[in-house]
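COURSE: Structural Biology Practicum
ASSIGNMENT: Worksheet 4, Part C
STUDENT ID: 0417
INSTRUCTIONS: Below are two proteins. For each, the amino acid sequence is given first, followed by its structure token string. Answer the questions at the end about the second protein only.

PROTEIN I
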Amino acid sequence: PGENETQVDLEELKTSVLYSGPVDPAEWVGLRKSYPLLVYLRNNLLMLAILAFEVTIYRHQEYYRCRNNLTTPVTKTIFHDITRAHLDDGLVNCVKYFINYFFYKFGLETCFLLSVNVIGQRMDFYAMIHAFWLIAVLYRRRRKAIAEIWPKYCCFLACIITFQYFLCIGIPPAPCKDYPWRSGNANFNSNIIKWLYFPDFIVRPNPVFLVCEYF
């Protein structure tokens, strides 16, 4: 690009996907030449193996219960014979009880801690939005009032994760068109772009943040 087209330093411009080397359009849709191919497909095959293992377990449980005329447990816990009455019967029963009901008892507090973790990990514009939502939920105080706003909060999380996923993908680099915040008239630098989580060919959005938001 010419001097009037961008304000980016030359050294920083060399790290851009548009100017660091030839652009392969197939990489934008997730296709990349790799050797050996098995290493490239390792994670996909692992996910398929986990899904197959899960389906096998559920089918085996269903078949076993039908053959022995057993009903499906109502609580769907790991240790079916452990209840609140067994909590003080020893350390082993205490651990079993919390394995069964930890999220049932402390799920809300766990979600609050994970929200704080997202804010601490990101420290950007979307972390500020998460902080406002956390304040809005905590302001309700009572569990019944929190339960009323919780579906809206879950809807917000689903929408914002999807939106940020498309930000991470960005526009295809094949047309060699840069983003408007990289033009000469825009007063944006790399730190501002990173803080706003804008798609960019130099400072690419960190997709690991979406994993934190998922939890």
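PROTEIN II
(use this one for the questions)
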Amino acid sequence: LRFDEQVRVVVFKSEVKGVFCAGADLKERAKMDDEEVGHFVKRLRNLMDEIAALPVPTIAAIDGYALGGGLELALACDLRVAASSAKMGLIETTRGLLPGAGGTQRLPRCVGIGRAKELIFTGRQIDGQQAFSMGLVNHAVPQNNEGDAAYQRALALAKEILPQAPFAVKMGKLAINKGIEVDIASGMAIEGMCYAQNIPTRDRQEGMAAFREKRPPRFIGK
């Protein structure tokens, strides 16, 4: 996906009705020794980092439970859409653990430090509507009979992104992700570097030409 230039948006969904991702298999984890657990969690953290580093926008379609590592997977995505009835939470403290695949870092950046601490300290599960009210998900939608309402909304969101200039979208994602980690002056410099890379693109020329000619642009990602 990282190197496929035809990919414009990646949507993460589950094939299991009622569950987005229920997190680690604790029965499996119980059979591991301390060293194996550490190695397992490190690999999981690396996976989430790889998802977060995908150059194109990513959307998590949460149609059911997203618990522990399952919510960490959703947090590694750029955007999240949930069914109102979905249940999500970083429940690790209820099992004698703490989030180990990015949850302690990505949740506060998403909902703020106070709310993140409350959710992690209590291990509380919240529904899609509550998640929307605190900014954890971008959209909360009523579940449908097929059980894929969040996925359908995620597809609609993806279709809003698809017509836009692919390289500009990638540079926008990069500028946001890198800029949020630094002071605003450094962030402005990052934005400037990303903008400079976009200036010589054919898509920028096409966007200007389409505006002058009063027609929809035809972007090619070059």
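ANSWER KEY EXCERPT:
Q1: The chain has a mean pLDDT of 94.
Q2: Residues 34-52 form the longest helix (19 residues).
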